Amino acid sequence: MHKRLNSEAETIEFANEMSARLKPGDVVAISGDLGAGKSVLARAMMRALGVSDTALPSPTYTIIQEYEGRGCRVAHMDWYRLSDESELGAIGVREYFMPPWICLIEWPERAYGLLSGSTIHLNLQCIEGAPEARMLEANDRIWT
Ligand SMILES: Nc1ncnc2c1ncn2[C@@H]1O[C@H](COP(=O)(O)OP(=O)(O)OP(=O)(O)O)[C@@H](O)[C@H]1O
Ligand SMILES: [Mg+2]
Predict the structure, then answer these.
(1) For residue 91, how far is the Cα from the chain centroid?
(2) How far apart are CA 96 and CA 23, in angstroms?
(3) Which of 15, 31, 41, 143 is deepest in the core (most CB within 10 A)?
(4) Residue 120: which residues within 8 A CB-CB, separation 6 or more?
(5) Is 36 in the pocket of ligand 1 (CB under 6 A)?
(6) Domains of the chain and CATH, by start
(7) Ligand 1: does its nearest atom lie under 6 Å from the Cβ of 11?
(8) Contact indicator for 137, 127 with CB cutoff of 8 Å
(9) Structure pTM?
(10) E-assigned strands of 10-143?
(11) How many alpha carbons lie under 13 Å from residue 142 in its C-beta half-sphere?
(12) What sign does the CA torsion over 56, 31, 39, 13 have?
């Protein structure tokens, strides 16, 4: 499905709707160009999931940040700086793909091979001539 988000506020509204459908064990892969709004979307989802405070200390904090949510734990990942998939395998990233975790991943294309078929894929794209607008594409999994 495609949805035009006309402002950052609409992106946050979408994040709220989307988060209400998530349950522990869900993995959300958020792709899109630099500055497309992946972090805006991820942070809004984290707030909607009940994350209120700063990340818990983690040895892998540049790649994975852990948070306490409402009825779940939330892992926010940014794979931008990853060199290859084996780096994530070594961290034991699959631990975060099951309850109690809800996992939000920016730059998932760095290691698509690690993601399962049940991953929820979101893509954000800028729209030429409309600096405040984004095109969101989502796979059907979240609407069924
Ligand atoms: N409709 C919109 N939705 C989301 N962000 C928007 C929108 N319109 C404008 N913006 C702006 O776009 C920027 C998005 O920045 P953000 O850090 O979320 O991008 P990103 O995709 O995470 O980039 P990076 O790949 O560098 O991590 C913010 O400055 C935000 O205010
Ligand atoms: Mg980002």
Answers:
(1) 18
(2) 13
(3) 41
(4) 26, 27, 28, 29, 138, 139, 141, 142
(5) yes
(6) 2-136 (3.40.50.300)
(7) yes
(8) no
(9) 0.94
(10) 27-32, 64-68, 73-78, 101-106, 120-127, 130-138
(11) 22
(12) negative
Beta bridge partners of 103: 27, 75
Tens-digit pLDDT profile for residues 18-56: 999 999 999 999 999 999 999 999 999 999 999 987 777
Q: How far apart are CA 99 and CA 102, in angstroms?
A: 7
**Statement: residue 90 has pLDDT above 70:** yes
Ligand lying nearest the CA atom of residue 124? 1
Whose CA is closest to atom 9 on ligand 1?
A: 132
Q: Which residue has tokens 């899109």?
A: 32
Q: Kind of pairing, strands 120-127 and 130-138?
A: antiparallel
Nearest bound ligand to CA 8? Answer: 1
Ligand 1 atom with minimal separation from the 133 CA: 1
Q: What would the DSSP string read from start to end of 25-61?
A: T-EEEEEESTTSSHHHHHHHHHHHTT--SPPBP-TTT
Residue closest via CA to ligand 1's atom 24 equals 34
Q: Which residue, 141, 63, 60, 64, is CA-closest to 101?
A: 64
Q: For ligand 1, pick from 8, 63, 105 the residue to mutate: most ligand atoms within 8 Å of CB.
A: 8
